[in-house]
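[scheduler] slot 2 assigned
[scheduler] job type: sequence-to-structure, two independent chains
[scheduler] chain ordering preserved from manifest
[runner] begin chain α
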Amino acid sequence: MTSVDAEDWLRALAEERGDIDRSSTAERVADKLRAGVLDGDIKPGQQLNEKALGDVLRVSRNTLREAFRLLTHERLLVHEYSKGVFVRKPDWRDIVDLYAARRVIEIGALHRWPNAADEVKRAVQEAVDLGLASAGEKDWTGVGTANIRFHQAVTALAGSARLDEEMKRLLAELRLAFHVMGDPRGFHEDYLALNQQISAHLRRDELRAAEEAMSDYFDRAEKHLVTGLRGE
């Protein structure tokens, strides 16, 4: 690239700076909304009010709409013509696809256990402990949140920021399915014991057993969700 070409490129970039600033802000807004889904605060079917969100977050309507576009691409939101933007309700086909992705990512991440940093390993058991504490308080929605953190911690064993980001998106979509199922105790209670089992295998460096337990977990959870969402 010649110096003239470089100057032309820089001038063009300067002209687009406003779009870049708006885009980066939109990504931060999308991060906030995605976190709300992961924590269970934003629920499927909920309408997102542009004015209310814009006032609270102090962002322009264009920035907010760009954030909505990003989350629509992630299958977390849906735009209904002449009605507005709503939080999406996943169906059973989404579940099949989500679990296909999770099997590849999480079971693969388990193999990185021996090389993971101590604090990353501790996060797996800490998520289990959080789930047990929430169950002790009969906070079954909190158990669901702890379950999300457990699977994020498992993914973090891979040591890949890209996989961590992808898992956030997958688990946010899955959290919406949890809401559609209803009865958080009936859904989450049994999986807490499976998380304990997987963590125990990892602490004993029983990677094959941890992989088999995770595979069993996914088979059971996928069937549970698909059956519930299909109304069977």
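[runner] end chain α
[runner] begin chain β
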Amino acid sequence: MRKIEEVLRLSAQGKSARAISRDTGVSRPSVATYLEKAAEHEISWPLPEGMDARTLEQLFFGAGDTSKTTPGLPDWEKVTTELATHHHLTLQLLWFEYKEQDPEGLSYPRFCARYRDWKKRSKVVMHFEHRAGEKLFCDFAGDTVPIWDPKTGEVSFMAQLFVSVMGLSSYIFLKGLSKPEG
């Protein structure tokens, strides 16, 4: 709750806004706002009969419900699945979808931070033990790349690349598949 009552009480004692701010821990601009609102509504200390802190706050700030609502959190498991299954989908695009469903929801930086925290807590790690040079790990390197004909300048075909690395060696081998016959 705001400390409106304490500000009004100290003001009635003749204290300055700076002194009230120091005594209550409320910023000077907030103290000034409280005093302006009190003058606007002709409220002084002691408070009128039947006026409590909640009524005072509603009068000053028009707040129907002063409790903060927590935004609905997305299903992080679904976010992870979406990112894994849709190749060009980004966390920002998923945040845009989330904001369409919940405009009062998390900001983008907070969304990303919560997602990273969730990933840390739910991270599953599989530990492989192997001797150096014993195994070769390979995978496709992603999208296909165009191969241009040097004479015509046209794309002659789309190549798929794969990358491999020998375990614990830090040597990388890269080879493109050759142009298919025919």
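[runner] end chain β
[qc] chain β: The beta strands are 136-140, 145-148, 155-159, 161-166, 172-176.
[scheduler] slot 2 released
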